[in-house]
Write a structure and sequence with these properties.
This protein has helices spanning 5-9, 31-42, 53-75, 88-104, 114-123, 126-129. It is mainly alpha-helical and 137 residues long. It folds into two domains: 2-42, no CATH class; 53-129, no CATH class. Helix 4 (88-104) crosses helix 5 (114-123). The longest helix is centred in the middle third of the chain and has 23 residues, at 53-75. The protein is extended, with a radius of gyration of 20 Å.
């Protein structure tokens, strides 16, 4: 960025790029907003996500779960998500995954194998079992 940083900050105060600027001057600094704008411009038949409703929510949920699933596969069964130790990331992912699995059966999908194994490993820890329900969530 270097010499362009000040110019970029006119549209993106944090200097984040890319920062598409629409014809009306609106600067898009959030990835989701960029994708929504692309979907709007290309139309519903070619859009990456449904425009609204339950199908959009389902696609977003599976997109997020897929990212975590791939990361779990890449790091292997005995590694932690972020560092070389149990962290807040494990608590967050385990709680969200457990909630989703119980309420939406989102992890019952055959696409997800490494993520449920990671959650099971976390829930087997003393810190999770000591809560009484077997989980901290």
């Amino acid at each position: 960025m270097g010499a362009d940083l000040e110019h970029i900050r006119e549209f993106s105060p944090l200097g984040r790029v890319p920062v598409p600027v629409l014809n009306d001057g609106t600067a898009l600094t959030d990835s989701a907003a960029m994708l929504d704008e692309i979907d709007d411009q290309i139309g519903p038949s070619r859009a990456l996500l449904p425009a609204s409703g339950a199908s959009r929510c389902r696609e977003q949920r599976h997109g997020a779960l897929e990212v975590i699933e791939v990361h779990c596969r890449e790091i292997g069964r005995d590694a932690w998500l972020v560092d070389e130790r149990f962290s807040h990331a494990e608590i967050t992912v385990t709680c969200i995954s457990t909630f989703r699995g119980e309420s939406l059966d989102a992890l019952g999908d055959a696409r997800y194998l490494a993520l449920p194994a990671h959650v099971e490993r976390c829930e087997a820890l003393h810190e999770f079992r000591a809560t009484g329900r077997g989980r901290v969530c």
